[in-house]
Amino acid sequence: MNNIYNIKERLLHSLLAAIEFFNHCKDEDGIIAIICFIDDFENLLDIYECSNEVTLDIEHILPYMKALLSCMQNDDIIGMADTLEYDIYPLLKEIEEGCAEK
Fold first, then answer.
1. Where are the domains of the chain?
2. Class of residue 60 by CB neighbours under 10 A (exposed 0-12, middle 13-18, buried 19+)
3. Could you point out which of 20, 39, 42, 50 has its C-alpha 20 to 30 Å from the C-alpha of 12?
């Protein structure tokens, strides 16, 4: 359980870092933060796959992750920043707050 908490914290931290970097025109640092975010997201999915405790609605977040991938493939920095800040972050924050209430 502690491992899941640490990964969730890192996930949100790297997501917020990417948003902050993009907002300050530090695109290269933002891309690095996105890579860290995706790595932590993948680790979290692996843990959920191996446990019975699922607190992440994959079907809900998947379209946003696909949109992020599309932006990355098209070198669309503004699209990446917007997808992270206005779609993915609010969703993950909502999930985290829901978990804290349990």
1. 2-101
2. exposed
3. 50
The answer to whether 18 and 30 are in contact (CB under 8 A) is yes
DSSP single-letter state for residue 42: H
Q: Of 52 and 39, which is predicted with more confidence?
A: 39
Among 47-51, 79-83, 96-100, the range scoring the smallest mean pLDDT is 96-100
Q: Give, as one character, the DSSP assignment of residue 87.
A: I
pTM: 0.83
Cβ(89)–Cβ(65) below 8 Å: no
- C-alpha to C-alpha distances, 14 to 37, 43, 51, 84, 93, nearest whole angstrom: 5, 14, 24, 11, 13
Percent of the chain with pLDDT over 70: 85
Q: Assess whether pLDDT exceeds 90 at residue 99.
A: no
